[in-house]
Recover the amino acids of this structure.
């Protein structure tokens, strides 16, 4: 039996966005939130977490990705403000929201989710929330500090980027943090698949 691969499908972020998010993380760290911060180069826009897959399924997933991406032209998104899941009273995840062509993003995600379900991958039970995870809070946080952070970081400059390629990532969990590598890439409104 082959070893499974932990994987997900996401948009990579351009260097300018990663740099902005790195700066925001550094400023948030000064608030002394007890968090496990995502390495800036690992921040991405997840469309579908697949979990453990069989390596034999990679090509089939690539075909599903190409089918979904072929129905969607590239679109622009903007970086919004920060927020916390599930809320400010018991924050667990620090994230940055997105603006711009969100209907196109939601249509692509739904199309991908439906096509993957047809291919045998279970649908996500929770509704899709477009966000970029900055960190996961490990200890209770003061709601006043969290609320002030939301106000202070409500506008991160609306930096715009183009979402034009989805990637099937392999996720290797290491003691130093997750390491991501590309398994497949698919350009939007194209049928090409790259290893």
């Amino acid at each position: 039996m082959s070893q499974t691969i932990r994987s997900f499908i996401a948009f990579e972020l351009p260097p300018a966005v990663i740099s902005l998010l790195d700066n925001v993380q550094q400023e948030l760290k000064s608030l002394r939130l007890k968090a496990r911060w995502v390495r800036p180069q690992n921040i991405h826009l997840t469309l579908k977490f697949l979990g453990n897959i069989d390596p034999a399924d990679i090509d089939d997933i690539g075909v599903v990705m190409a089918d979904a991406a072929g129905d969607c032209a590239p679109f622009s998104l903007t970086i919004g403000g920060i927020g916390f899941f599930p809320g400010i009273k018991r924050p667990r995840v620090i994230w940055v929201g997105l603006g711009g062509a969100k209907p196109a993003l939601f249509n692509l995600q739904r199309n991908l989710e439906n096509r993957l379900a047809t291919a045998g991958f279970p649908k996500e039970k929770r509704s899709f929330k477009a966000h970029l995870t900055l960190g996961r809070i490990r200890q209770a946080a003061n709601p006043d500090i969290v609320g002030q952070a939301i106000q202070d970081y409500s506008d991160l400059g609306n930096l715009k980027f183009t979402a034009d390629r989805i990637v099937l990532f392999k996720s290797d969990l290491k003691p130093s943090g997750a390491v991501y590598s590309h398994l497949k890439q698919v350009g939007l409104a194209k049928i090409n698949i790259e290893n």
In short: The chain has a mean pLDDT of 91. Strands lie at 5-11, 35-37, 45-53, 75-85, 93-100, 131-137, 160-163, 165-174, 177-187, 193-194.
